[in-house]
User: What shape does this take?
Amino acid sequence: MIDLARSTNQETFVMNLGPQHPATHGVLRVKLTMDGEYIVNAEPVLGYVHRMHEKMGENRTWAQFMPNTGRLDYLGALSYNHGYVKVVEQAMGIEVPERAEYLRVITVELNRIASHLLWFGAFVLDLGGFTPLLYAFDDREHILDLLESVTGSRLTFCYFRFGGLYNDIDDNFVTGTRAFIKRLRKRLPDYHNLVTKNIILIKRLKGVGVLPAEMCRKYGATGPVLRGSGVQYDVRKNEPYSVYPELDFDVPVYAEGDSMARYMVRMDEIEQCMRIVEQALDKLPEGPVMAEKVPKILKPAPGDYYGAVEAARGSFGVRIVSDGTNTPYRLKLRSPTFSNLSLYGEASRGMLLADALALMGSLDLVIPEIDR
Amino acid sequence: MLSELIKEFAALEPLAIIETDYNVKGYHLDVEVGPEQVVTAAELLDRLGFFLEAISGVDWLGKTPVGNQPETVTADEPAEEGGEESEAGAEAESKEAPGDKFEVVYDYNRTDGELCRVVVRCRLDRDEPEIPTISGIIPGADWHERETHDFFGIVFTGHPDLSPLLLPEDADFHPLRKDFKA
Assistant: This one.
């Protein structure tokens, strides 16, 4: 790493990365102050896809906000559905049938695999490898087809309801999911042979973009970013919700804190997701997928409530404030990548531009979820 | 963890400390402090290994804040709104126009040890919404404070850069204020 103190007051220049740049995966602009190839300062500029979801929440009913939750993180939308219904059910004391909870877990985990697969393809694309993207999209397509058959949509899901689900699954979904898992189990070794063991990838990622655990804590980073820095924190384990306590799965943790560690965490998570889905399918109980006594008009008792779930990118939290009426008084969305990206300025200081792009890719950014 | 934390907080003499029902509220401890204490509270939680999940603002224009009212109070009163109004009325008599409030809520959490979610809240006068920044202690608060400034116009004194983060760079409005009309 270059000694930046030496080069201060020497010639630096400002460069814009984005807002339209393939490596930022959406409209994110980063204002870079460069000293040659080295970054002196990086300032992410947000807000290009800001839609003010929190204000929208204040002028529609609790149920009407549901579709908005599918439009934050378009790669892992079901987790966001889950976070929102979880906190409202908690505030209202709504009991969810067990079958619905299992189906929530199955679909959320499938969605997580899809999200990680897309990240995998796009990340390697950032690093200059085009082919893996096609492999990843091929596999991801199967998940989207499966989810489409039960939820009715492919990306912006609105599948969960307060007290259950919109739709039950059929036998085709079960056989299709089992077949897909079998297929992906065969494909993952290919991914590792093609990409993980690739010497170029290793050289680009190993020891690059190290995020110490303390930095992650100071910035509130969660999810694979935090677990890649050696911290065993996963909302599904630390704050058990739904039927996760009844399922046996591991939380992959890598202590190195470099981009390679974050890469490995997500690749291992795909395997754990498959374990969860298989077990949940085995244990899936019969019964209704919707609670019987859910009031048509929801009026949570006045007060504020907080609920968090583990989304594909980290801890997604919803803080609701109710004044006892049928519309939220305040609805705060705590998105994981907002916090994960906020450490970028400090973490990228003194890095080579190409390495900083690898670091950005390893954070797994979804811009609409940051901007909300 | 929780009892230790309550002891540490009690030493700060906050306006209120309430142990909450996690299964309903989603957090364990609710601490209300004055604006001069948010930095001390942040230092305390940072020292104990907590991290900041989020900062959210709430505009209580024309309303009595209900955030941390003990659950029994709201449950026991069927005529909820009437109760609130009379309460506000009584306050107005004694203090002469209590004035509307902004609320800033800090959500803290920890990654190790026993699960413990802590909410620190602070109420500000709506006419003069100023509160010291905690970004010097917790750098992650920087963006959260900027966002809260965008949406509510709450000024975090000592913050390095309060220029709009999510809103357009020339935005002179604060959309989450209850009197904001699009």
About this structure: Chain B has six helices and seven strands. Chain B touches chain A at residues 23-27, 49, 51-54, 56, 58-59, 63, 66-69, 71, 74-75, 80-81, 105, 107, 109, 111-112, 115, 117, 119, 138-140, 142-143, 151, 164-168, 175-176 (CB under 8 Å).
